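Title: Prediction job returns without error message
Component: structure pipeline
Severity: low
Priority: P3
Assignee: unassigned

Description:
Job completed but the reporter wants confirmation the result is attached to the right record. Sequence as submitted:
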Amino acid sequence: MAFDRGTPAGGGARMMARIDRDANQVKALNDAFQKQARKDKEAFLKERCKIMEEEGKRGRTQEIFAEMQKITGKFTPRMGSLKSTNGWIIGDNDEVMNRWKRSFTV
């Protein structure tokens, strides 16, 4: 299921179009690359679902959940950071609260 880099949407052609600064060609190649990536993802998910259905028919629930873990991956919570007025990222909770207060004071 790996993407073939030799195709026109491959990395080499896109890199050369960027070097040549041909915006239309870069856009067309990026569109083709994204389309192929969507197709590959769909094929990957269909294959995983097929495996899960087969495991379900055999009554192997543990293997089904293992496949679900492979599809969904590990949960990673988002960082609750803000940017200050000068563009710096605020990481301290007190500074974040002060920033919100300044933003929403009437």
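Comment from assignee: result matches the submitted record. Residues 78-106 form one domain.
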